[in-house]
Design a protein that fits this description.
This protein has two helices and three strands. The chain is of the alpha+beta class. A three-stranded antiparallel β-sheet has the order 1-2-3, with helices on one face. Strand 1 and strand 2 form a beta hairpin.
Length: 75
């Protein structure tokens, strides 16, 4: 088991069971596009609005690796 603070532990959570899209930190906009957001130190960082869920997911994965390193969980 590795030592982790609360933020690192939160970054390592899996996608919640009630997540309709099945992708972490991606939401559908009213226009049908996909918004990606990451939370760092409890502050939201808007990563962009994308045409596909794959693009939004990739943006989150890249930001998660940057901000959380070995604690990043992208799915």
């Amino acid at each position: 088991m590795r030592d982790a603070n609360n933020q690192q532990n939160s970054a390592n959570k899996r996608v919640l069971a009630n997540n309709i899209l099945g992708v972490k930190n991606v939401r559908r906009t009213d226009e049908g596009r996909f918004r990606s957001t990451i939370y760092v130190d409890s502050a939201p960082i808007h990563l962009g609005i994308f045409d596909t869920i794959e693009e939004a997911s990739a943006a989150y994965a890249k930001a998660a690796r940057k901000h959380f390193g070995k604690f990043a969980r992208t799915s």
